[in-house]
Amino acid sequence: MSTLPFRQLSSLIVASLAFSLVTGVGAANAATPSTAKASVAETAKASVTKEQAPPRGRTAATANPLYRTGTLPDLRCTTGQIRAGSAASYKIFMTRVNRCLNLMWKTQFRKAKLPFAQPKLRFVTSKVSSPCGRWPSGAGGYYCSSNRTMYIGVTRAVLKNPYGPNHAQFMAHEYAHHVQQLAGIMNYYGQSVWRARSSTKLAFSRRLELQADCLGSAFLRQVADDLPVDQEQWDAMVRWVDENGHKSWPTNDHGKGRSQAYWMERGFNAGSPSACNTWTASPRSVA
What's the rounded mean pLDDT across residues 47-70? Predict the structure, then answer.
């Protein structure tokens, strides 16, 4: 169980669940592959299948091969704990989560017969710029598709609260943007918002971000026993997001709180990318 009562999460979620994306168009004691359960290792050693190029255009978003790959692998993810105020323990924890994400999504991409490459991970103590531009306002971290790098802020606000599952969800969300990049979804998004009017850009941004919420939550479901996060804790997190998730994003480019909560629930309940096709969802569910 968590070493911190869940009711103390509010201050962290503001900083740590403040996700953002910047597109190219628009460690010590880290976990190793040996931490995976036998079923995952066997899957990774399966016969090599011929990879295909990621789909292009609208099909990349609406009918991506990842949607037909079933549940994410049942992964043993030993992360350790974060000590309040300790940047070192935070970095170790997040690096381990990243290793688990690499292994899990590598397996899933193999099932989809799509090429896979790991993203880069960079911890920063200030709001640095990247090839994608300036640090997004309100974000605790972001993914830049131009250099395929996740920038994770290590700040006093983040280090005040050591609740691991919240930080893991944050990392998984940013990693999901990398998944979108590799799967061709990001390219479709970039083409769609290029020179589009503001309302169209916001609508596409919400579908992109809410899908990342869903994919991140699917990962959390598969590693819930190890973090750990039980149903009561998860429900409390979702309720908080429902009520507050939109407050960091005044332009509504990430979706309303109820929309974020809805897609988080879908991902966590299914543990599969199949639940995360925001691109064919009704406008109401991605508002």
Answer: 90
